Amino acid sequence: MADVKHFDPDATLETVLRLFWQRGAASTGVQDIVTATGVNRSSLYATFGDKQALYRAALNRYTDLHSRPAFRHLAEDGRGLPALVAFFDSLIEVRCSGPYARWGCLVVNAHAGAENGDPEVRALLDAHHEWLREALHTALLGAAERGQLAPGVDPASAAGVLALLAYGVNLRSRAGADAADLADSVRAALAPLAAPAARS
Questions:
Q1: Which of 40, 70, 100, 116 has its CA 20 to 30 A from that of 129?
Q2: Domains observed in the chain
Q3: Residues 101-132: pLDDT tens digits?
Q4: Could you tell me how far CA 198 lies from the centroid of its own chain?
Q5: Is the pTM of this model over 0.85?
Q6: Which run of H or of E encompasses 170?
């Protein structure tokens, strides 16, 4: 069994992140973490703290490696509505295929779990929501500048709605929803935002 001096904390945290992501925090015990990482309990605690501290560290790592780069890419895309389509297409693809298929989003999973009772976790969930909403808002403002939005569409309000749509995609994909059905729902939600010329 590895000790605190002979294991890679970064690699260990990545293993813990995937364990929480796939199984959920409530279903993952400390012994599960010990078994998956090969690091004994005392070494884990000495390096990271207790299970809840490990969970917070994993959640922060997830947002740094997965969420924020995706949001930054959306905000910097510059194409307006096509950027939004690409964002949701990519979200559906990663949630329904590949190594993390049907795992959902670690942050969205936390919204639905008891772990959000931790004030530090709640603060991160709120911050994550704002990062997502701001990225969507930026893309919608770009769409407005390009004349792509239908009359009367408010980019700020639409960004809030699309953030909720992203949460829905994450939750439904974890529950086994079909990728094509999710894509159809996303297209139906995005269609009313587009100016008539942008729909053709």
A1: 100
A2: 58-199 (1.10.357.10)
A3: 999 999 999 998 878 789 999 999 999 999 99
A4: 28
A5: yes
A6: helix 155-174
